[in-house]
Amino acid sequence: MEKSPPLAPELVSEFVRKAHSDIDRVRELLEIEPKLVNTSWDWGGGDFESGLGAAVHTGRREIALLLIERGARLDIFAAAMLGMLDVVKTALTACPDARKSLGAHGIPLIVHAKMGGEPAREVYEFLESLA
């Protein structure tokens, strides 16, 4: 398989920044470069953030769903924010210590569930019961 050249850092940075709040620009950027969907930005000190990570820790459900539809890799943080209790339970059954995992910017898993609001209430309550 031939290796693709790296994406322009400015493009990756803009994509991750916009994934915090601007669904229209996220769509535009994905049309320009579909491979952005799984890129990560290095904020420094090991703090890597993907577009999906940006969307989920800010509670941007529509952006998260768009990114997953376009091929973003679902992780436990996205599952928590989106209210996917079965996914979160399965992951934590396999790896119980994952409940202590931190997402981008050191944000705990339970905060991602809280950002999901009512659709993620059951996930939040489940995670709270584990504390």
Topology-level CATH name: Serine Threonine Protein Phosphatase 5, Tetratricopeptide repeat
The secondary structure category is mainly alpha
Task: State the CATH architecture.
Answer: Alpha Horseshoe
**Largest sheet features:** 2 strands, antiparallel
Widest beta sheet: strand line-up: 1-2
What is the average per-residue confidence, as pLDDT, rounded to a whole number? 96
Distance between the termini: 45 Å
Task: List the total number of helices.
Answer: 8
CATH superfamily: Ankyrin repeat-containing domain
Tell me the quaternary state. single chain
Give the helix proportion (percent range). Answer: 40-55%
Classified by CATH, the class is Mainly Alpha
Computed over alpha carbons, the radius of gyration is 15 Å
Helix and strand element order: HHEEHHHHHH
Q: What is the count of distinct domains?
A: 1
Report the count of strand segments.
2
Binned strand content:
under 5%
Notable traits:
single chain, 131 residues, mainly alpha, Serine Threonine Protein Phosphatase 5, Tetratricopeptide repeat, two-stranded antiparallel sheet, 8 helices, 53% helix
Explain this structure to me?
This protein has eight helices and two strands. It is mainly alpha-helical and 131 residues long. The chain has one domain: Alpha Horseshoe (Serine Threonine Protein Phosphatase 5, Tetratricopeptide repeat), CATH 1.25.40. It has a two-stranded antiparallel sheet. Strand 1 and strand 2 form a beta hairpin. The longest helix has 10 residues. It is globular. The mean pLDDT is 96.
